[in-house]
TrEMBL record:
Record-linked InterPro entries: Adhesin_Head_dom (IPR008640), Chlamydial_TARP (IPR053108), Coiled_stalk_dom (IPR008635), ESPR (IPR024973), Serralysin-like_metalloprot_C (IPR011049)
Natural source organism: Salmonella enterica subsp. enterica serovar Agama
Domain Trimeric autotransporter adhesin YadA-like head: residue ranges: 117-142, 144-170, 172-198, 200-225
Pfam families xrefs: ESPR (PF13018), YadA_head (PF05658), YadA_stalk (PF05662)
Domain (ESPR): residue spans on this chain: 1-46
Organism superkingdom: Bacteria
GO CC field: outer membrane
Protein name according to UniProt: Autotransporter adhesin SadA
Database matches in SUPFAM superfamilies: Adhesin YadA, collagen-binding domain
Trimeric autotransporter adhesin YadA-like stalk domain location: 230-273, 335-379, 440-484
Amino acid sequence: MNRIFKVLWNAATGTFIVTSETAKSRGKKSGRRKLAVSALISLSGIMISADALANAGNDTGSGVTVSGTTGTGWIAIGTDATANTYTNVDGASAAMGYHASAMGKWSTAIGSYSQSTGDSSLALGVKSTSAGDRAIAMGASSSASGSYSMAMGVYADSSGAKSVALGYKSVASGATSSALGYQATASGDDSAAFGNGAQAIGTNSVALGAGSTALEDNSVAVGNSTTQRQITYVAKGDINANSTDAVTGAQIYSLSQSVADRLGGGASVNSDGTVNAPLYKVGTGIYNNVGSALSALNTSITNTEASVAGLAEDALLWDGNTSAFSANHSGSDSKITNLAAGTLAADSTDAVNGSQLFDTNEKVDQNTADITTNTDSINQNTTDIAANTASINQNTTDIATNTTNINSLSNSVTTLTDDALLWDGSASAFSANHSGSDSKITNLAAGTLAADSTDAVNGSQLFATNENVSQNTTDIAANTDSINQNTTDIAANTTSINQNTTDITTNTASINQNTTDIA
């Protein structure tokens, strides 16, 4: 075997050629280095003579036949570099570098200790490894063990099928996963981790940004348990039953405002979107939520219903049969107490209380006493009145007329017993007005008749009083007329008596004179 000192690029043929140490390449030294590196990276353009072995000093390369006939087109350059010797139709491999190994079909290993064991795989960089078919490992100690995977960067590792690991110590172990960034990890299938230390653990998860961790399946993380991030400038998402859009803070705030508006009770929205609790006043209680307020309202309604039922039992109710308010309670007549004094006037419809009727009765009693006194005076003058019987008979006719008028007045007084039981704020009293008309109070027990009584009195009590008043009025009127007539008659009689006395005196004088004359 010839000793070979140089492998040079032949610009004319576009291939590497093996030459002696005295041969020179075209161009400057720096230019040759750049050209050689470019050619190594673009291996698809390398054309090297079949069965080439590179020896420089002690460096040796070898071809290894796994099975079958030794093929051509393999390349092994560097100390202990190894390239599988497939036939051309099966695929040739290339190994370049110290202990480089290209054992996969059509595989390429470039760099010290680089290994390309997967078919059509590429390992570029010291200790780089491409074990997966058609996998690419680029960078020192990078590893692409997943088929169709790519690991780019120092210690980058793409073990998942069709995965991509880009960056120092990046790891893409999930199938079709992607890890981009320093120590980024995508272990879930179809996951993606972007950023320094980002981790996409769940299936179909996405971790965005340094330190972000997506643990759950089908999740997106923009931070972790200790570090969170805002997502800004997000367009408004659709809000409907089938929407899967992300919504913005403005949409959440608007929703909170809508809830606050509908809650009422002073509910409002804080700057962070939370809703300030409303204040509902039900009865004497204050509540901060709808449930408690409704519960309190229900209790209040129940209590009100009980109060109304009790009021209906104890209140003065309208009796449609008699067209009047009835004081009947538990089947018996009852009193109305604490009744303010009603107005006493010709047009009054107020109910009167016991003290008012007591005062009237007191006056009736006084009139009775006065009548007794007058009766004594009348009896004293009976003898004188007898002479004036004719005049008295005439007066009797006049008295009958006056009695009719008094009875009419009594009817007006009866009208005063009409009462109103509903409170009239303008009058500060209860009103018995019903359906726009005045009404009666029936079944009213007799009220107490005393100076301090505030009981309402009934018609029978007032009727008895009216009877007494009418009788007294009649008697007083009769007595007054009789007394007046007697006084007139007595005056007339006195005049006559005086005249008669004068006449008698005159006659006596005349008789005396006549007696004298006769004598």
